[in-house]
Amino acid sequence: MAAGLQVFGQPASTDVARVLTCLFEKNLEFELVRIDTFKKEHKLPEFIKLRDPTGQVTFKHGNKTLVDSRDICRYVCTEFPEDGNRGIYGTGSLERASIEQWLQAEAQGFDAPSSELVFHLAFAPQLADHGMAFIPDEARVQENERKLQRILAVYDEILAKSRFLAGDEFTLADLSHLPSSHYIAGSERGRKLFTARRNVARWYGEISGRESWKQVVKMQSEHPGAFE
User: Which first-to-last residue range defines the signal peptide (predicted)?
Assistant: First the structure.
């Protein structure tokens, strides 16, 4: 297998989906080792041998092991700069600095409210479908909707001046937002958060239509994950 890249986890995971999208953008071959933590497969001996102190292995390249999905994307782009989408992590120091600012903004601002909404709008209904008790917290949903609305209002202003977040080319800045946005936009309630703003709607429509992301969505539909 080219490059000997391995990804551990389920495509349904937002972190795994982020990494898979990056690998598809870079046109790199990899092995997906499906580890279902819901079924305690992360405690299997062969998995424990690979993990780092956090016990959350998601990526392995030779003797190198990384667990944070954004760091994995940075590593892939740095390690294989000439493969696939060469500009996804910037082609110069200024471009990369802008992308890094957006990666931090996504991790520190967008991620928390969007992850809450992913659980309540996408994953919680699956729990109920599988007979697991779950009482929706409407106040919490509304709180995180308000937080995300404020963030997307800022995004809308930025996207009025550029095609993508870090400029006129698709980069890791945009890619990193895809997994959670996809789950939120999968519900009618969540979709309105993106369609309510013209520039955000245009941007999300474009990034979610990329072939790399379509491949990930196809993998998710074939293997839904922990609830199956």
Answer: none
Query: Has residue 199 got a pLDDT over 50?
Result: yes
Intra-chain end-to-end CA distance of the chain, in Å: 29
Look at the chain and report how many structural domains it folds into.
2
Q: Is residue 205 part of a domain?
A: yes
The answer to whether position 87 is within a domain reads no
> In 151-172, which positions are buried (b, 16+ CB within 10 angstroms) versus exposed (e)?
bbeebbeebeeeebbbbebbbb
Whole-angstrom distance, CA of residue 78 vs CA of residue 89:
8
Tokens linked to 59: 């990526």
pLDDT tens digits for 64-111? 989 999 999 999 999 999 999 999 999 999 999 999 999 999 999 999
* Least confident window among 129-133, 168-172, 173-177: 129-133
In angstroms, the CA 228 to CA 218 distance is 16
pLDDT, residue 130, reads 52
* Rounded CA separation 199/11 (Å): 28
Say yes or no: 63 and 103 in one domain. no
Domain range for 161 is 93-210
> What are the structure tokens assigned to 68, written together?
């944070």
CA distances from 200 to 64, 72, 153, 163, 174 (A): 37, 26, 8, 10, 11
**Shared domain check, 37 and 97:** no
Decide if 170 contacts 102 (C-beta within 8 A).
no
Residue 50 falls within a domain, yes or no?
yes
Based on the domain organization, do 99 and 197 belong to the same domain? Answer: yes
Question: Is residue 49 pLDDT above 70, yes or no?
Answer: no
